Automatic annotation (TrEMBL):
Protein name: YheE
Length: 69
């Protein structure tokens, strides 16, 4: 489960899509950029290949709830 999820706009003009994300997963901190097309670019280390699909699904759900709802 993702913990301590936070996001902020990448640009001062909040009409432009793009967000900086940070969160903890399995007691490790991750940072990423969430692009307007739903793409996720990790800054630094990404979750393991076994966890990646699950983590990205949770991120999409959180972004839908917080940003697009």
């Amino acid at each position: 489960m993702i913990q301590h999820f936070s996001y902020k706009p990448l640009y001062e003009n909040t009409q432009l899509p793009g967000w900086a994300l940070s969160f903890f997963y399995k007691q490790k901190r991750y940072q990423a950029e969430y692009k307007k097309d739903g793409g996720i670019r990790y800054i630094g280390e990404a979750p393991s290949p076994e966890d990646l699909a699950h983590v990205e699904k949770m991120i999409h759900e959180l972004m839908l709830f917080h940003v697009y709802d």
